[in-house]
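Kindly inspect this one:
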Amino acid sequence: MNSFYPALRIMGLLVASMAVAAATPGPTIRKTATSTRAPKAAIKLMATRRVARLQPMRVVPLKQALRNQTPVTLTGAVTGQNGIPLAGATVWVSGTTKQVAVTNAAGSFSITLPSAEPIGLSCGYGGYKQQAMFLQSPEQQRGVIFTLQATNQRQRR
């Protein structure tokens, strides 16, 4: 009985490959060496079958695929080194000018990301060094805080 299962698997693969080949548009005939012992019906059948090349395919669980295509709203704040909110600071998705947000009077921002895939964010404000961060899972972020440092700090004497 154990020798029956491998033969059944081979038959299943053969049937599956023939179904894919039959569904492929356009005839592709490949000449193969034939034995003189093969029945003529089998040779005729091989000549009329279409051959399909199978390509590797990326398989992603449905839950993950849907999660990655859902827009994500990300909120956060921008402050200076001293903790004072920076109103009018700009936050954007790194490498694009399409997803941009400007902080309000409280230094808070809200930006909608196209998907939940990992993404880079940048922040800038006049007189402060630009800062960037990478978010591995934007949908799990509970508030992004940018703390910017002044570009020309005065030295006290």
